[in-house]
């Protein structure tokens, strides 16, 4: 049971960290910049 609680706590911590990353300005800017690159890759390939 103790192991399950520890795993659950780790998953919550990782989820919270990912939420902070996805909400950060640098993540949003990077995603915005990469959209045309992805489109060009699809056109070329």
The number of distinct helices, counting runs of at least 4 residues, comes to 2
Got a strand count?
0
Low-confidence stretches: none
Q: Helix content range of the residues, please?
A: over 70%
* Overall pLDDT: 93
Written as H for each helix and E for each strand, in order along the chain, the element string is HH
Give the structural class: mainly alpha
Beta-strand residue fraction: under 5%
Largest sheet: none
Q: Count the domains.
A: 1
- Separation of termini? 50 Å
- Mass-distribution shape: elongated
Radius of gyration: 17 Å
Summed up, what is this model?
The protein has 45 residues and is mainly α. It is 91% helix and 0% strand.
Structural summary, described in words:
By secondary structure, the protein is mainly alpha-helical. The chain has one domain (2-44). It contains two helices and no strands. The longest helix has 21 residues, at 2-22. It is elongated. The termini are far apart.
Question: Which secondary structure elements does this structure contain, and how are they paired or packed?
Answer:
Layout: H1 2-22, H2 25-44
Quickly list its features.
45 residues; mainly alpha
